[in-house]
Amino acid sequence: MPRKLAVVAIGGNSLIKDKRHVTVEDQYQAAYETCQHLADMVAAGWELAIGHGNGPQVGFVLRRSEIAARVEGLHEVPLDACVADTQGAIGYALQQNLQNILYQRNIKKKVVTIITQVLVDKDDPAFRNPTKPIGSFMDEAEARRRAREQGWHVIEDAGRGWRRVVPSPSPKEVVELETVETLLNQGIVTITVGGGGIPVIDPGDGNYRGVAAVIDKDRASALLAVSLQADLLLISTAVEKVALYFGRPEQRWIDRMTLDEARRYLAEGIHFAKGSMAPKIEAIIDYLEHGGKQAIITNPENIGRALRGETGTHIVP
Hints:
alpha/beta, Carbamate kinase, 2 domains, eight-stranded mixed β-sheet, 17 strands, 38% helix, globular
């Protein structure tokens, strides 16, 4: 594998700045800004494998699908196909922007997107306890009908209505790993494991089959970083640094922590929000426990400064 290899995980929310900027063009512009910082990494000599989130984008696809299904002759899109759709669309925005920026900087480097499957265990406990809300809010009658007719798991969500919930199993293997390795060995920037990857299972006959589930993109990126023996796992998110005692009067930003400290802070259960920062810390712990060298958490605009050690939270073995 090429050395000085970084796996960079970009949050799906980072492509949507606020509720007023959600169109495809808005997201393309946000991708352009992120790609400027990724191009800086390329210029500094890093080979890049880029993962990204897709939560809001899958939500849009599902919403369009639900509306379209009311029209005779149209059908709803299965969740695994929604992940594939968003891998292509987000990958396109990142790929084209980054390729254009590299061309403008006279950096001769290609960029490609791989529609990536990620294997999960068909017996993962998550399949018995779906917890990840997806799609639109419904009234109770609609939710009960969907559960009865389509086998959906549904929950009442904090008084706001009913929603479908799906499993979030652990990623076990990047199916297209050898292809990703081949591209990186050729010096090609590779966008992969989008949205955590399309979740697939092996039913037992050696074939893959897509399932209605979502994989955490940071955990998938960590698995990719371990599989590639990457020198760096960089998680790009909404904050410049990680905070201890987040949201409390005693909150403080942290510049550096060791693997043991990360384990301890996570176990204390008071520092990292379950739906946002905790999965990132868990992913980094997994990466470092499997031989990873270093990890950084920061926001896109501070990637360059973080790589120079000027900001971000650096987590080391």
